[in-house]
Amino acid sequence: MSGIDTIADRRGRVIRPPRASIALRPGSGPKTAAMERYRIRGGGSLLLPVAPGDTLVFIDKEGLQPCEATFISEAGKCEGAGLGVRFANDASGGLRSILAREETGARRQRAALLKTGLEISQLAAIRFFGGGSRAGSRAEFVVAAPGLLLAGAPGERMEPDGQAVATEIELQITRIAGAPRDYHAYLPEPLADPLQDIRIDAATAKAYFVRAGEFIQVIDVFGRQCTDFQAFSARKLDKGLDLALDATVTRTLLGRSYPIPGLPSKAFDRDFEPLVEVVQDTVGRHDAFATACNSRYYDDMGYPGHVNCTDNFNEALAPYGIAPRKGWEALNYFYNTRVDDHNQLYLDEPWSRPGDYVLMRALTDIVCVSSSCPDDIDPANGWTPTDIHIRTFSAQEKFSRAVAYRMTPDAPAELTRETAFHERLSDKTRDFIEYRGYWLPNRFTATGPIEEYWACREAAALIDLSPLRKFEVTGPDAEALLQYCLTRDVRKLTTGQVVYSAMCYEHGGMIDDGTLFRLGDHNFRWIGGDDYSGVWLREVAEKKGFQAWVRSSTDQLHNIAVQGPKSRDILKDIFWTAPRQPEIADLEWFRFSVARIGHFEGPPVVVSRTGYTGELGYEIFCHPKDAAAVFDAVWTAGEPHGLRPMGLQALDMVRIEAGLIFAHYDFGDQTDPFEAGIGFTVPLKSKQDDFIGRDALIRRKDNPRVRMVGLDVASNEAVSHGDPLFIGRAQVGVVTSATASPILGKTIAMARVDVTHALVGAELEIGKLDGLQKRIPAVIVPLSHYDPEKTRPRA
């Protein structure tokens, strides 16, 4: 009976014992776990205290990455006995190089080491991994004495035409005897020196005062614990006015359900005065609809007298002369609520994980109150209320605006970063939006999306595409791995050539689309939109035993695109190329050249004749440290030709006109390449080798369900992704992307339509409201509305 003990009753019926509920939570971890996980970034280091009996496990996540580690005793000396090994001075060069940098993390680690009496020149360490280490290689040590662990993942700058990338090392620490970590061990390292450290025990609340400009960090210590936050203008309290932060006013002014980092970041009181602005958020799922829990809620659920946030608020705020309420409106951080399709408000466990936080800035002197919600009768706190921690920081500190992005569900949170071109582009706009972990321009102040659009169609536009995910695929089996994982025939690719391909699961659904660069016989670079494509390649390499390594180089290669009919004229004279490399003016479509800016010793770049606009265009890849020089050279050469910067709004217009697909809009894991309109990337007849998804794609091609088509919309009404398509009362498709086309003078769309009706000239209706009360006529046309033969990018 599947390993489950069973018994039979007197009638011979099998009686099964009750079965425990099972829920999988990748990466979230239990609320009281003994194992700690730390990330050592490629090119970075980590310093933290360790104790006797702690087990340290280092994992080379992507392979080939050396790691250096040392143990510093309480006497301030590097002692190999602390890890049970012998240290060497010549094994610490990477750590010394990392600590010598003028970066915040390196400065703080240097200061911590100096407090122990240890000079950087005295470092000795053990070096392991690197060489031929495989992805997932592990090294284990047991700590023998109390002290500090210093570990680093050293690496030098990667050249655009090279593949010596520094990647991540994961450190797992299991504390002695598997004992749960204490409260302070769970707390993340302070973002700066705190002004206040306030522990809010489970099921309690505390009030505190914050001055204008100071920062407030609300930390979920153990994960999956919600906390209500409320604030009052101290100036108004002095006048007897307790005008609390008002969620309804905030939602109305922002046009959002709650504030997030970026432009819609402020929270307001009833007088429309902004009290706080959200600066950083590592969770991205909160609530501003429900009140803080109150006695009525628990009474109605059958728990009279249950402790609640409202009563806790009333008690904490009483010393400030704030009148009690039966239910406090609040920003309910980490509270996971949504409104479903039936207009019902529902809740589930919070998304927050141990150490997640929200960082706010006070916009005036405020009295704040925060709770640790006591709700233990539903999933609101993961069924177990735990602690919340508050830190406040000086107004003199500098914190970048950021939200969290996770590469995979079990990956650590990445805060939104600025691309290497951000400094130049921020001079031209303040309208940035978060895209895949980076801030990208949405539109530019001096022009706007329509002018940016026309610059791309008639002259040239510069676009920051640095968030594209890059992976270096190397090793003797690199070609075999890619031949098996991509739909294109990689064996036909020559050095210097680029090919556009799909990557599919076994069932034919798409993981990603992207371009593959061949840098050498066993050297490739995959550039796509999804982090998981690199993870997938690595998993397949391990499963199949391929001698190939897949290492992320996104942080080492940032890129801009120069697109438009004048792009060749702009770029042809600003690059130096070696005799064996094609000059930019001679570069053919889907080819690349290794070049330098200006002259033989100029900053190195890789220039490819590729793009995402349907126009003649190029992409320029460089190391982030060279981004300013690259931008300046391109901008100076482009201004006489009418070069303009382009944001994501205008980019969406040109790519939809050209019929170019976008992940999570035009395709996903339920969409095969044929259904996404890129069947040309699946050469089933000419590619004889097997590849992942081949059998499913053969079946799906022979038995298509839907087809990607273009739509001409007979209305100026707005059409959006997800709008249903009807013939009569039957839904026969869905809009995937839509835009108002300036060059065509009409609204156009891309859509997936049932093959029965996916015929050019067929008339459909786009459903608005509930799909029945309002319809917009449309007619099916070929997929690419603009230059379907691709004559312009081929020019």
Our count of helices gives: 16
CA gyration radius, whole angstroms: 29 Å
Largest sheet: 8 strands, mixed
Separation of termini? 68 Å
Number of E strands: 45
Unreliable stretches covering 5 or more consecutive residues: none
Mean pLDDT: 93
Estimate the strand proportion.
Answer: 25-35%
Secondary structure class reads: alpha+beta
Helix content: 10-25%
Large-scale geometry: globular
How would you characterize this protein structure?
45% of the residues are buried. The protein has 795 residues and is of the alpha+beta class. The chain contains 16 helices and 45 strands. The chain is 16% helix and 31% strand. It starts with 6 loop residues before the first strand and ends with a helix. Strands 11, 13, 15, 16, 20, 22, 23 and 24 form an eight-stranded mixed β-sheet that branches. A seven-stranded mixed β-sheet has the order 35-36-37-38-34-28-39, sandwiched between helices. A hairpin with an 8-residue loop joins strand 37 and strand 38.
